[in-house]
Design a protein that fits this description.
By secondary structure, this protein is an alpha/beta fold. The protein folds into two domains: 93 residues, no CATH class; 330 residues, 3-Layer(aba) Sandwich (Alkaline Phosphatase, subunit A). The chain is 26% helix and 11% strand. The chain has a seven-stranded mixed beta sheet with strand order 7-8-3-11-12-6-13, sandwiched between helices. Strands 1-2 form a two-stranded antiparallel sheet. A two-stranded antiparallel ribbon has the order 4-5. β1 and β2 form a beta hairpin. α3 packs parallel to α7 and α7 runs parallel beside α9. The longest helix has 23 residues.
């Protein structure tokens, strides 16, 4: 590949003086410093993502060294955003471990994930805040929404579509620390966030697309970029084209463009209300729509950040019951069937978790495609990907498959921790990263201080 000399002020120039600013690209930095973020900076946004069921332990960890590592089969879809990742292995979800505290195994992992604590006994909610709600008043001050919480195919199995300790991760910042259910209807979420921006402005409609004037320049540049940069550039130009269609003005530098509201009439957000304990009642039509609904929800979170609607978000892919099918992967049984109900099935689970990695990659690429003037939305956002167990068959909670990306972290690294440090230490480190000096978070018995090696 020919070496490029791109600056952060570079543009695609076409006929009649038409010019389009480029998003941040890795080609704009020296290869040795092409990390997604500058460590030591204070990020401005926090996003947590939950997906159910742990992992296939032997197929998840990277191989190699801290900075020279190869992604595992399950993490392989994240290769285009590898430089934006920080992968901490060896952490122990101690607060949610049934062997240490008398709490239901899935309930413990769900509630401890963002709170660092549990409430003993099945069916009890924790008596403390989740980290996202602690951060929300600081980060979202003056914004329309303190935080944004949404979920795909939520409330399956035993919770029957209702708020339950086995499907809630978020809890209010103040007593009585009420559980916070996610929003489920993608259309309702879109209208809440973007209805005021969806009215077209046709005062200065273009007769031809501004992108037509730079297409040849774009094609020439794209051939010289790496895969990750091509995706960033394509996403950037797609947003401009979408903006042309929506408002027909010359305001091409806007980053706040509501995502297209795709048809989700085949998706029932309240499907969980009809669920059975065993998962025997299946909603195959709704399940088949999970990929497009999930994509829409990721796009809405990205644009909620870009439009300054909020600075704190949470996306929940289902719940710990995981009693949904995956027809797009040719898996007709429920996720929980492959975890436990049908016996532990690592081949099918690897397929499921690899797909989730592809969704995580998409989310990070979308955040990285938003240029904020020399920095990207990902540069200013900490993203925490988590789950409720490490091993789906044993429900073990040591060596949790967590991922971090973005905002102020030293990324492009795989950090291995010895002696099972509690994941509460990670929560403390995240608080500290946002300027909160708290030395502990959650259950003090499961916390020994900030986790080293993140920044």
């Amino acid at each position: 590949m020919t070496k490029l000399n791109l600056s952060r002020r570079s543009m695609l120039k076409g006929a009649a003086g038409v010019a389009i600013g480029l998003p941040w690209l890795e080609a704009m930095t020296h290869p040795k410093t092409a990390q997604a973020n500058a460590p030591g900076t204070t990020p401005k946004r926090f996003l947590a993502v939950y997906r159910p069921g742990g992992t296939v332990p032997e197929k998840w960890p990277p191989t190699g060294t801290e900075t020279e590592f190869a992604l595992s089969p399950i993490l392989a879809p994240l290769e285009p955003v590898k430089s934006s990742l920080l992968i901490p292995t060896g952490l122990y979800l101690m607060a949610g471990d049934q062997s240490k505290f008398p709490v239901e195994q899935y309930q413990g992992g769900m509630q401890a994930l963002l709170t660092g604590q549990v409430q003993p006994g099945a069916g009890n909610f924790v008596k403390g805040p989740s980290i996202d709600q602690v951060l929300a008043p600081r980060l979202s001050a003056g914004k329309p929404f303190g935080s944004l919480s949404m979920a795909v195919r939520w409330g399956t199995g035993k919770s029957h579509g209702k708020v339950s300790p086995i499907n809630i991760c978020q809890f209010a910042a103040t007593s009585p620390f009420a559980p916070i259910p996610p929003r489920l209807d993608p259309v309702e979420i879109w209208k809440t966030l973007f209805n005021d921006q969806s009215r077209p402005n046709t005062e200065r409609a273009w007769e031809t697309s501004i992108l037509d004037a730079v297409d040849k320049r774009y094609a020439k540049l794209a051939m010289r970029l790496g895969a990750a940069d091509r995706q960033r550039l394509e996403a950037h130009l797609e947003r401009i084209r979408d903006l042309e269609k929506r408002i027909g003005t010359t305001a091409i530098n806007r980053v706040c463009v509501p995502p297209t509201l795709v048809d989700t009439s085949d998706y029932n957000p309240a499907s969980g209300l009809n669920s059975s304990d065993s998962g025997s009642i299946k909603d195959l039509v709704t399940d088949a729509a999970i990929p497009k609904v999930g994509k829409l929800m990721m796009d809405m979170i990205v644009m909620a950040f870009a439009c300054d609607k909020t600075a704190v978000g949470f996306l929940q892919w289902c719940d710990s019951e995981a009693k949904y099918t995956l027809p797009w992967l040719n898996l007709p049984e429920t996720h929980m069937y492959y975890e436990n109900d049908g016996g532990y099935r690592p081949v099918e689970l690897e397929k499921i978790y690899t797909w989730y990695s592809s969704q995580h990659a998409y989310l990070l690429q979308q955040l990285a495609s938003i240029d904020l003037g020399g920095r990207t939305l990902l540069d200013e956002t900490v993203v925490f990907f988590g789950t409720e167990v490490a091993h789906p068959a044993s429900h073990a909670k040591k060596n949790m498959p967590f991922l971090l990306a973005g905002g102020g972290l030293r990324t492009g690294r795989w950090v291995q921790y010895a002696d099972d440090p509690p994941h509460n230490n990670l929560l403390v480190s995240l608080l500290n990263l946002f300027g909160d000096p708290s030395p502990t978070f959650g259950d003090a018995r499961c916390c020994t201080g900030a986790l080293p090696g993140l920044v």
